[in-house]
C-alpha cells in the first residue's frame, strides 16, 4: 500500500511578489491610459489586454489564496505556473512592442509615459518569470 502525496497543489503564501506584480500591472494600466495612441493598434490592444487582464487575474489569485487559506484548501501549482509563464511572455512582448513603436517619436510627455510603460512592463515580465521559477522549484 503506497501513500500518495498531492504534488500538484501547493499552499503558497500570499507573497510580496504577487503584490508587486499586481502593483506594476496597475502602474502599467495607469501609464497606458495617459499614453494610448491610435498609431499602432495591435500594440495598444495587446498592451490593454495584458495590463487590464492581469489586474483582474492577479486580484482573483489573491482572493483565491485568501479563500483557500480560510478553508484550508490548496491552490493548484499548475495554474500558478501557467499564469506566471503566460504573464511573463505577455508583459515582455508588450513592453518590447511599446518601446519599439515609440522609439522614434518626438520627445513629448506622452512619449515619456509610453517609454516608462514599456520599461515597467518588461520589469514586470521578468518578475513574472522569476515567480515561475520559484513556483516550479517549490517542493510542496
From TrEMBL:
Keywords: Membrane, Transmembrane, Transmembrane helix. It comes from Clunio marinus. The chain crosses the membrane at residues 12-33, 45-67, 79-99, 119-136. GO terms for cellular component: plasma membrane. The keyword Flavoprotein does not apply. GO terms for biological process: septate junction assembly. It comes from the Eukaryota. The keyword Membrane applies. This is CLUMA_CG017772, isoform A.
Amino acid at each position: 500500500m503506497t501513500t500518495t502525496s498531492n504534488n500538484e497543489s501547493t499552499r503558497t503564501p500570499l507573497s510580496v511578489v504577487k503584490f508587486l506584480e499586481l502593483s506594476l500591472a496597475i502602474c502599467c494600466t495607469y501609464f497606458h491610459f495617459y499614453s494610448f495612441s491610435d498609431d499602432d493598434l495591435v500594440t495598444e490592444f495587446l498592451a490593454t489586454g495584458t495590463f487590464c487582464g492581469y489586474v483582474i487575474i492577479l486580484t482573483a489569485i489573491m482572493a483565491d489564496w485568501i479563500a483557500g487559506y480560510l478553508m484550508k484548501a490548496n491552490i493548484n501549482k499548475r495554474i500558478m505556473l501557467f499564469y506566471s509563464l503566460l504573464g511573463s511572455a505577455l508583459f515582455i512582448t508588450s513592453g518590447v512592442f511599446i518601446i519599439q513603436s515609440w522609439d522614434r517619436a518626438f520627445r513629448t510627455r506622452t512619449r515619456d509615459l509610453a517609454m516608462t510603460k514599456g520599461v515597467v512592463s518588461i520589469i514586470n515580465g521578468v518578475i513574472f518569470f522569476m515567480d515561475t521559477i520559484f513556483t516550479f522549484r517549490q517542493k510542496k
